[in-house]
Amino acid sequence: MQTIFAFILVFGSLVFFHELGHFIFAKRAGIMVREFAIGFGPKIFGMRKGETLYTIRLLPLGGYVRMAGQDFDTVELKPGYRIGVVLNEDEEIIKLYMNQSVDDPNVLFLETEKADLDRELYIEGYDEEGELYRYKVSRTATVVEDGEELTIAPFDRQFESKSLGARTMAIFAGPLFNFILAFFLFIILALLKGVPTEEPIIADVEAGSPAEEAGIMAGDYITAVDGKEVKKWTQFFEKIYDNPNKELEVQLIRADETVTALVTPTMLEEQGQQFGRIGVYYSSPVEHGVMKSIVYGGEQLIYWFGKISDLLGQLVTGKLNMEALSGPVGIYKATGDIAERGFINLLSWGAVLSINLGIMNLLPLPALDGGRLLFFAIEAVRGRPVDKQKEGMVHFIGIVLLLVLMVVVTWNDIQRFFFNV
User: Fold this and answer.
1) Rounded to whole angstroms, how far apart are CA atoms 45 and 28?
2) Which end of the chain is less congested by CB atoms within 10 angstroms, N or C?
3) DSSP 107
4) Quick one: which of 242, 244, 263, 268 has its CA closest to 252?
5) Helices 388-418 and 369-382 sit at what angle, rounded to 10 degrees?
6) Closest Cα partner for 68 from 160, 143, 148, 173?
7) Phi, psi dihedral angles at 19 (to 5 degrees)
8) Do 211 and 278 touch, CB atoms closer than 8 A?
9) What residues pair up with 260 in beta bridges, in sequence order?
10) Bridge partners of 196?
11) How, if at all, do strands 273-277 and 195-196 pair?
12) What is each CA distance from 295 to 187, 247, 351, 354, in whole angstroms?
């Protein structure tokens, strides 16, 4: 139960803030947001407020913000359609019935002659006595079709009606909010536990480790590795991490004397990734302060953005194989393990995951935010948008390929964590 709760809390928060970014900037641009959803699949909770339906869905594997005009959700009335309409006191249509029987004396039935529910907002049609009428359609009119109710979206409320800049920000805001969330989580971490000074001081040495064999001792102050100056523990850590099975020259200060040690990191492998370890531990003193925490939040955001981007580059170039990828099962397992180490560690894990989610969504792949932004870039160069049918087909193919990748990654996770394959 602890693992389930931790996973829902962490992953749900990341998805919520991602979709919140889309939602806020869509609203700022005047775009009608039809649904704000956390999760996919069948709806388990729904609440309508204004023109937006807020839902929680069964599968907690993502979320979406459905904007008017994005999914070909506009209503089209062709000549000959038989419809039912409800008028207000100003004889504006406020409700429109399609493809269903209606037993309401207030409903006027028409056979459509002409209609425009996007720009001019009118319907012309013949009543049951053959008289032709033209009615204005309210900007907030609802359409009921096959039992489903939908608010019409005038063209100026649709996604495609907005400027390229407004559409770009509505899409980019999702990943942006993931980075903002990570920044504030790192600040909270710093306020709770202090900002580590990151002095490169050895706190302890593991018995029988490469470090002990090289003569490294607790209390040693690291000044350089292979001739490169070391000022922070992370610099030392990355040098060891990136050089498994390679002899490194480490310069230390011990009791005001300079000492040189030759150490060869042991190579370890996890999820298809190889890294070095020498068996030393780090315990840095901390400093407190609001400004120091803010600076720390920015530094950590930049550090992890670079680290995750570098690992992604290695995956693209083939330096890492598919086993290095983890899907929902891998994230679930890792979240449970980290939750057992306490709230602080879970908070840090959530910040790193948020950055990872933001970066992955910015990849220029169909169906991801980055894929949408790529089409906007093409539009900016061409001076006109790509045909929506063609773009939709590209995104559909992208969704299929991503689902296939998700299945493969999930299967690898299941084998790794439950069958030790």
Assistant:
1) 26
2) N
3) P
4) 263
5) 150
6) 160
7) -70, -30
8) yes
9) 251
10) 286
11) unpaired
12) 8, 35, 15, 19
Which residue in the block uniquely carries the two structure tokens 């907005």? 162
> Which DSSP string do the residues of 173-226 spell out, in sequence order?
HHHHHHHHHHHHHHHHHHHHH-EE----BEEEE-TTSHHHHTT--TT-EEEEET
Query: Among 369, 360, 371, which Cα is nearest to 394's?
Result: 371
Q: Please name the residues in contact with 295: beta carbons below 8 A apart, sequence gap of 6 or more.
A: 195
Q: Is 125 exposed, middle or buried (0-12, 13-18, 19+ CB in 10 A)?
A: buried
Structure tokens, 74: 């506009």
Q: What angle do CA 98, 120, 169 make, to 5 degrees?
A: 95
Which pLDDT score, from 0 to 100, does residue 76 have?
81
Tokens 């990654």 sit on residue: 409
**Pick from 226, 237, 186: nearest CA to 348:** 186
Q: What is the DSSP letter of 50?
A: T
Strand partners, 103: none
d(CA 262, CA 277): 14
Is the Cβ–Cβ distance between 100 and 145 less than 8 Å? Answer: yes
Q: Answer yes or no: is pLDDT of 101 > 80.
A: no
CA pair distance 162, 116, nearest whole angstrom: 20
- DSSP codes of every residue in 315-359: HHHTSS-GGG---HHHHHHHHHHHHTT-HHHHHHHHHHHHHHHHH
- State the amino acid at position 147 in one-letter form: G
Task: Look up residue 288 and give its DSSP letter.
Answer: -
CA distances from 383 to 16, 155, 164, 203, 375 (A): 34, 21, 10, 60, 12
User: What are 129's two structure tokens?
Assistant: 């006595």
For residue 10, give the amino acid letter: V
Largest CA-CA distance found in the chain, in angstroms, rounded: 106
Residue 340 CB partners (closer than 8 Å, separation 6+): 2
Is the predicted pLDDT of residue 85 greater than 70, yes or no?
A: yes
Residue 5: what pLDDT? 84
- Which residue type occupies 91? E
Q: Return the number of other C-beta atoms located less than 10 Å from residue 185's C-beta.
A: 23
Give per-residue pLDDT as tens, 4-47: 888 888 888 999 999 999 999 999 999 999 999 998 889 999 99
* Separation between Cα atoms, residue 107 and residue 97, nearest integer Å: 9
Hey, what amino acid is at 67? M
Other beta carbons less than 10 A from residue 63's beta carbon: 24
Q: Which residues are catalytic?
A: 19
